[in-house]
């Protein structure tokens, strides 16, 4: 459903948010290793996320990526998807056809409308804090 770049972007942002909850900046190398993505590809994704104000990037020997706690409450999963993949998943054809709308629908147009609406609502209602803290709790419980 999402591009590979978008999947990596989501994973990277959640990882950065998790580490930021513990007041830790993370390097490109750490992020790429954690999400199992090539460094050069990860760098391009992180550049896009930083350019869109979704993560903070710091240069230098103590640099890296982080996200302040207040930002975690305002950044939604929707923002990451939109920053990397654009709005095509929210407005494009479910089959990927160029010309599909209510006037000239594809065979799954009507079925896909509801799915798209549910997906959009889920993405718009899911915050980075919810994801980062939820995974943190889940990881803590797994280690017991």
Automatic annotation (TrEMBL):
GO terms for molecular function: DNA-binding transcription factor activity. InterPro entries: Tscrpt_reg_Rrf2 (IPR000944), WH-like_DNA-bd_sf (IPR036388), WH_DNA-bd_sf (IPR036390). It comes from the Bacteria. GO terms for cellular component: cytosol. Gene3D superfamilies: Winged helix-like DNA-binding domain superfamily/Winged helix DNA-binding domain (1.10.10.10). PANTHER family: HTH-TYPE TRANSCRIPTIONAL REGULATOR YWGB-RELATED, WINGED HELIX-TURN-HELIX TRANSCRIPTIONAL REGULATOR, RRF2 FAMILY. NCBIfam families: rrf2_super. This is Rrf2 family transcriptional regulator. It comes from Arenibacter certesii.
